[in-house]
Write a structure and sequence with these properties.
By secondary structure, the chain is mostly helical. The chain is built from six helices and three strands. The chain has a three-stranded mixed β-sheet, with helices on one face. Strand 1 and strand 2 form a beta hairpin.
């Protein structure tokens, strides 16, 4: 389960509660979610401190590469990397490295990416955009706008070889 999936499920429960006849259930559920978030956030902050990631040692890369752990660290403002580092981590998490970071505009939440020339042939731009949205939701939820630019095609490889002598018998 990703942080995005968990958030969606919590919202669905709150929406169901909002549909109940007794309107008091929604504020109580929201209070419950807030208290649980605070409790889990405090526990996660203590884990990070006990691992030494509070400035004395870095968190292991395996933790930062995990989408769920990374999503929790971002959610509780405990992730040690800045947004551009997390954007790069999100891109590295995608198979085949289909895009590279050109720039990020924090005020707009917009990221500009250059797609690999030729693409992977596995679903096109729509599939790539969905994969990017999923990765950014876990690693860099600040990204709300993805702008894809196609890379210039690679020049054709010139093959230099020996020709058969002129007038050579082809038979």
């Amino acid at each position: 389960m990703t942080a995005e999936t968990a958030g969606r499920r919590v919202q669905e429960v709150l929406d169901r509660l909002a549909g109940e006849e007794d309107g008091a259930a929604v504020p109580a559920a929201e209070d419950l979610v807030r208290e649980l978030m605070a409790f889990y956030g405090e526990g996660l902050a203590r884990i990070v401190a006990l691992l030494g990631a509070d400035g004395t040692a870095p968190l292991p890369a395996a933790l930062l590469d995990d989408q769920v752990v990374s999503g929790l660290l971002v959610l509780h403002d405990l992730h040690p990397e800045n947004v551009q580092q997390r954007i790069r981590r999100a891109l590295r998490s995608l198979p085949g490295r289909p895009a590279e970071l050109i720039g990020y505009a924090a005020e707009a939440g917009s990221v500009r990416l250059r797609t690999a020339p030729g693409g992977c042939g596995c679903g096109g731009e729509d599939a790539l955009r969905r994969d990017l949205e999923t990765a950014f939701a876990c690693y860099a939820p600040e990204v709300t706008d993805i702008r894809l630019e196609k890379a210039a095609p690679q020049p054709a490889l010139l093959q230099i070889g020996r020709r058969p002598p002129v007038g050579a018998d082809a038979g």
